[in-house]
Structures are given as structure tokens and as C-alpha cells.
Write a structure and sequence with these properties.
The chain folds into two domains: 237 residues, 3-Layer(aba) Sandwich (Rossmann fold), CATH 3.40.50; 73 residues, no CATH class. Helix 4 packs across helix 5 and helix 5 crosses helix 7. It has eleven helices and twelve strands. An eight-stranded mixed β-sheet has the order 6-7-8-3-9-10-12-11, sandwiched between helices. Strands 2-1-4-5 form a four-stranded antiparallel β-sheet. With 322 residues, the chain is α/β, with parallel strands linked by helices.
Length: 322
């Protein structure tokens, strides 16, 4: 455990709704090692964002509830610890960059006030020191005229600048773990590349342990060390990124790779995985992916696949390997 920053074991987060129990996360296991970038990958609705929110219990409760599993951090189970303990960890030890910066920032407070408030909450700094730290962080994120931006409101900044502000805010208290929930989804290609460069630099300079959530395997190949492929609220394959890209084991992983755009192909249409992600209230029996799987067998429709370790760093849940 010395090299492990965070360990998630059999995590299950459910939402009680009028239509039934939504099993958004239903048995997820992974370890985040010190200084690595671990990518959670999958289509919308596979459970990756709820997994991340569960780590800090940031979902509404009710209707959401962690019904099983452990989230081990620094000798503490975050799934069961008190809210007082959790509030001391949120933003300070474990920080999160949300997907939609416009929604995450308070529209009636200036950029400076929002970041300074978080710094003063967790660190023993006066206003002047917190202000200087904020300016330094904004400059580090590549925001020009950082001192002037302190007095700006969120609506006065572009989408890319707001995303940089969120990253600066998440780093304001020197966290050990950073969770990034699809931070490049709502920006254009140029800004996307710049934000990925920021994460590269943070990894090199701060040795941050990062959980990076994305649906884009091209981003995974560029930034990740290891990847957890998620489907139906479960982790179906975990391996180093090079293994995931070059030697995928699960048919779902192979399908995601085939969907990547390739300029060398002359086909008129991009490849796609047939069907849609399953309804989390009415999950298919057996393997959740079998209705869409080109290699589905009879057993796939009857029994949930066990976890198979195919090599030291590679595990997969699929009946093809039983």
C-alpha cells in the first residue's frame, strides 16, 4: 500500500428513484498509485462520473447512497467516515475539476474571491498571502494578466479560461490527488491541447496522482499511465494504457478503439458500437455488454463474467477467457 494513494474496493453507489433503483456504480475496483495518471474510460452512462463523485460523496443524498464497498485513503474509509472528516479532505487533500466550468463557478462572486475563499478555508494564510498565491496559480495556468482576472466574474471569461480557473482552484491547497471529470469536453481542439499540456506539466512538476475521466481513448493514449474501462457501472478491463491500446482483451474495449477516427481509412462512415448503453434500472442478465457484443456466447446471457488476470498488470471480466 506504500505506493497506493487511493484504493477503491467493490464500490456500489445506487440512486433510489420512483422508477426503481438506479445502480449507477455496481462493483468497481481500482488502485490509484502515487504520481500516476489513471484514466476512467467509457461511454456516457457507464458510471465513471458517479465513481469519481462517490470518492468525495458529492452526489445528492438522498436519492444517492453508497450501499457497499470501501474507498481507502490515508487509513480512512471515505465511504463511511463522518462529513466533518470528509470536508477537511475535500479541496485540500483530494480536489476535483468538474466537466462544466460555467456551472461549477459561482456567477455572483469574482474569480479571486472564489479561489481565495478556498485557500483561507484550508490553509493558515491571511488575505494578502492567499491573494498572492491565487495570482501565482492563475499565472501558472497560463492566464494572461492574472492580477486583473482576480476581479473578473465567470461570464467575462471564455470557456477555456474558465476551465483553467477551475484547475487553478483545484490546485490551490496542494492536493495529493486530483480528479479531472472530462475537463476537455466543452472546449475546442486548440484549448483541449493546451489543457492536456497543463496536466502533463502538473504531473512532471508536482507528482500529482490524477484520476482523469474521459470517453476519448485518444486522450487516454496521450496522458494516461493506466486505464480502467467501465461499462454498466462496473470495471470490465484494467491495464497499462499501452496494453489497452495495443492488446485489448474485452470486446467493449476493442469496440471503443475501432470507433477512433483514422485519417488513413477511406470509409464514408465512422465505426460505431451497435445499440446503446443499458438502462441502469433494468440491467441485462449475465454480462451487461452481451446485447451489443459481437462475440457473445450463451453463457454471456446467463452468468456475470468473473475477473480474470491475464498478466501481472492486466485484468478483464469476460467469459472469453474462462
Amino acid at each position: 500500500m506504500d505506493n497506493v494513494s487511493l484504493k477503491v474496493s467493490n464500490l456500489r453507489t445506487h440512486f433510489l428513484t420512483r422508477r426503481g433503483i438506479v445502480k449507477a456504480v455496481d462493483g468497481v475496483d481500482f488502485e490509484l498509485r502515487r504520481g500516476e495518471c489513471l484514466c476512467l474510460v467509457g461511454e456516457s452512462g457507464c458510471g465513471k462520473t458517479v465513481t469519481a463523485l462517490s470518492i468525495l460523496r458529492l452526489f445528492d443524498s438522498p436519492p444517492g447512497k453508497i450501499v457497499g464497498g470501501q474507498i481507502s485513503y490515508d487509513g480512512l474509509d471515505l465511504a463511511k467516515c463522518s462529513l466533518r472528516q470528509l470536508r477537511q479532505i475535500r479541496g485540500k487533500d483530494i480536489a476535483i475539476v468538474f466537466q462544466e466550468a460555467q456551472s461549477a463557478l459561482n456567477p455572483v462572486l469574482t474569480i479571486g474571491d472564489q479561489i481565495i475563499e478556498q485557500i483561507k478555508l484550508h490553509l493558515p494564510l491571511d488575505y494578502s498571502m492567499a491573494r498572492d498565491r491565487t495570482i501565482s496559480l492563475l499565472s501558472e495556468m497560463g492566464i494572461p494578466s492574472a492580477k486583473r482576472v482576480l476581479s473578473y466574474y465567470p461570464h467575462q471569461l471564455s470557456g477555456g479560461m474558465k476551465q483553467r480557473v477551475l484547475i487553478a482552484m483545484s490546485l490551490s491547497c496542494d492536493p495529493q490527488i486530483l480528479i479531472a471529470d472530462e475537463p476537455t469536453t466543452a472546449v475546442d481542439v486548440t484549448i483541449k491541447a493546451q489543457i492536456l499540456d497543463i496536466f502533463h506539466e502538473l504531473k512532471a512538476s508536482r507528482q500529482l496522482s490524477t484520476i482523469f475521466i474521459t470517453h476519448d481513448l485518444a486522450v487516454v493514449a496521450e496522458i494516461g499511465d493506466r486505464a480502467v474501462i467501465m461499462y454498466g457501472g462496473k470495471d470490465v478491463e484494467t491495464a497499462p494504457v499501452s496494453e489497452i491500446i495495443n492488446n485489448p482483451k474485452h470486446p467493449y474495449t476493442s469496440g471503443l478503439i475501432e470507433c477512433l477516427p483514422d485519417v488513413s481509412k477511406t470509409a464514408d462512415r465512422l465505426a460505431s458500437i451497435p445499440g446503446t448503453t443499458p438502462n441502469p434500472i433494468e440491467m441485462p442478465k449475465g454480462c451487461a455488454f452481451h446485447p451489443r457484443c459481437p462475440k457473445a456466447m450463451k453463457i454471456c446471457k446467463q452468468q456475470e463474467p468473473p475477473e480474470i488476470i491475464t498478466s501481472k498488470e492486466h485484468k478483464v471480466s469476460c467469459h472469453l477467457y474462462t
